[in-house]
Design brief:
It is a single chain. The chain has 2 helices and 9 strands. It has one domain: Cupredoxins -  blue copper proteins (Immunoglobulin-like). A hairpin with a 4-residue loop joins strand 5 and strand 6. The chain is globular. By secondary structure, it is α/β, with parallel strands linked by helices. The structure holds copper (II) ion.
């Protein structure tokens, strides 16, 4: 008698456990559309970029929105891809758009003298899809 009672309890447990999973699967996070918009938010300060590893897709237009969270002027440069923002002051933002023509890993730097050497560098990985 206790065995069938346990079985019923287990069945109930399994049903209640699987139900939320079904709900989640039917409701994909609609806000997570980074791949579609191609806009990457990058923040810079002394002396780092955040995030310090970006990704992009070859042949797909990518926009970087660079915000200066620091107390010095900074810029965002990917020399290998010909990408360069203006040097912006603390609290400012700027955007740069580009379409990576090749796959690979490319260095991102701040070209204000001394900043890259102090650690203000990052990477962008361009993949084929
Ligand atoms: Cu800098």
């Amino acid at each position: 008698m206790s065995k069938s009672f346990l079985l019923a309890g287990l069945t109930l447990l399994v049903c209640s456990l699987s139900a939320p999973g079904v709900t989640r699967a039917g409701n994909p996070a609609g806000k997570e559309s980074g791949a579609g918009t191609g806009v990457i938010d990058v923040h810079g300060k002394e002396f780092a970029f955040m995030p310090n590893k970006l990704s992009a897709v070859r042949g797909h237009k990518t926009t970087v929105r660079f915000t200066n969270d620091g107390v010095l002027a900074h810029n965002f440069v990917i020399e290998s891809l010909g990408v360069k923002t203006e040097t912006i002051q603390p609290g400012q933002s700027t955007e740069v758009s580009f379409t990576p023509p090749k796959i690979g890993s490319f260095k991102i730097r701040c070209l204000v003298p001394g900043h890259m050497e102090a650690g203000m560098q990052a990477m962008i990985v361009v993949t084929s899809q």
